[in-house]
Amino acid sequence: MCLLIRNGEIVTSKDRYFADIYIEDETISAIGKHIEVLPGTKVIDATGKYIFPGFIDPHVHIHLPFMGTFAKDDYKTASTAALVGGTTTLIEMCCPSRGEDAMEGYNTWKQKAAGLSACDYAFHMAVTRFDEKTEAQLREIVADGTTSFKIFLSYKNFFGVDDGEMYQTLKLARELGVIVTAHCENAELVSRLQQELIAAGKTGPEWHEPSRPETVEAEGTTRFATFLETTGATGYVVHLSCAPALKAALDAKARGVKISVESVLPHFLLDKTYAGREGVEGLKYVMSPPLRDKRNQATLWEALEDGGIDTVGTDHCPFDLEQKLLGKDNFTLIPNGIPGLEDRVNLMYTYGVSRGSLSLNRFVDALSTKAAKLFGLYPRKGEIAVGSDADLVIYDPAYRGNISVKTQHMNCDYSGFEGVEIDGRPDVVTVRGKVQVRDGAFVGEYGRGELLRRKPHVESSTR
Ligand code: DUC
Ligand code: ZN
Ligand code: ZN
Ligand code: ZN
Known about the structure:
Layout: E1 2-6, E2 9-11, E3 16-18, E4 20-24, E5 27-32, E6 41-45, E7 50-53, E8 55-60, E9 65-66, E10 69-70, H1 75-84, E11 87-94, H2 102-113, E12 120-126, H3 132-143, E13 148-152, H4 163-176, E14 179-183, H5 187-199, H6 208-211, H7 214-231, E15 234-237, H8 243-254, E16 259-264, H9 265-269, H10 280-283, H11 295-306, E17 311-313, H12 321-324, H13 344-354, H14 360-374, E18 392-396, E19 401-402, E20 421-422, E21 425-431, E22 434-438, E23 441-442
Parallel strand pairs: 1-6, 2-7, 8-11, 11-12, 12-13, 13-14, 14-15, 15-16, 16-17
Antiparallel strand pairs: 1-4, 2-3, 4-5, 7-18, 9-10, 18-21, 19-20, 21-22, 22-23
Helix pairs in contact: 4-7, 7-8
C-alpha cells in the first residue's frame, strides 16, 4: 500500500517547510516537492494543514490497580482516545505493587495490550521492590526491550521504594543503560501531614494539596538527583508540578547530573482552587503531585519553551465519579488521577502555540521528539524523515471546538476540561502508514498497535 500526503506544511522539532510525503507500507520513503503519483497510490490532500510526527505520550496509566480500585480504561478505549487526540505512541507505566512478582506483573500488563491496541505502545517497568529475584527479572525485562524503569518515592508500602532500593535500582540501570523515571515526593512527610490534617478534621479534597506541599516534591526531586549524581545513572522526573522542584532539577542538571524533566497537562492549565470546588466537583481534581498555586503555571510554560522542561505527558489516569466518591469524607482515600490522554495535543497546541508563546518546533519536540530520544525510539518515532515510521498527524489549525465528556473516547464519566475551547484538532492520523483517524473520527483497527521493543539507550538532556 502506498500513500501520498500532498500540500501540507511539515513541522518537526527543528524544521518547518512545505513538501509531499510518500509512504510505502509502514515507513516514509520519500519527502519532496511534487512527488509523482504512481498508479494505486492513495492521495490525501493536506492543504491548509500541519503535518506533525505522531505524538508520544510518555506517561500513561491504563491497567492500574491503585488505592483499592482500578483505573477505567482498557487498551481499546485508551488507544482510540490517544489516536483521536493525535498520540500514536503511548508509554504505559507497568506498575505491579510491592507484594507482586515483577515478571508476573510485566506479563499481565503485556497481555492487557496484546491484540487490542490501535496505537503503538511501550512500558516503563516499575521497580517497586528490589531483591535478588526481582533483579534477575529486571534483566530479562530489559532484554525483552523494555528499557526504562519507574520508581515511586511516595506511595509507601504499595509502590514506593526506600532509599536503599532506589540506590540498587539506579546502579542496575546504570549498568544496563536504562533510564529511570521517578515520582518524586517524600513519602514520610506525606504520610505525617495526611495524618495531622485528618486528625484536625480537615478531610475535604482541598486539603490534598497541603498534605503534599511544594517542599515535599522539591525534597523528592533533590534526593533523586543526589542519588543520580552518586550512581552516575540517568534519570527523568515525571509530572513535575512546581517551581521549587524545577529549581532542584535544573540545579542538578547545571552541575552535570543526567536528569530530564517531564511535566503533565493538568499542571499547565489547572490549579489547586479546582480541588476546592463544591461536592464531587473538587474530587475530580485530585492527583499527585497535586494541582498547585496558579503562580507556578508561568514558570512551567516558560521552562517548556526554553527546554528546562523536556517533555509533556499526561499522567492519564481515569477514575469515575463513583470511585472518586470513595474519598468524599477523607481526601486520603480519593483515587488519584485525572484523564487527559485524548486532550494533551489539542490543549497544549491551543494554550501554548495558538494563544500562548510556545513555538511550533518546541511543541513538537516536547510532545513527541524528545520523548522518542530519551526512551530509545528515535528516529523510528518522533521524526518525519525517510526511513521513519509513517506515524503522522495531519492537523487542522482552523478547527474550533470544545472539550466535553459527551464526545470523549476515554472511558471516564467526567472531563477535567469540560467546556474548554480548542483551536485545532487532528484531521487524519496514521500509524505505520495506516489511516486510523479520518475527519477527526476513529476509523482504525484494533490490534494494529505494536509493543515497541527498545534498545538500551540513554540520552541526557540537551539543555
Ligand atoms: N499520580 C496520580 O495522580 N495518579 C496515578 C499515580 C500518580 O502518581
Ligand atoms: Zn506519579
Ligand atoms: Zn503516573
Ligand atoms: Zn478531512
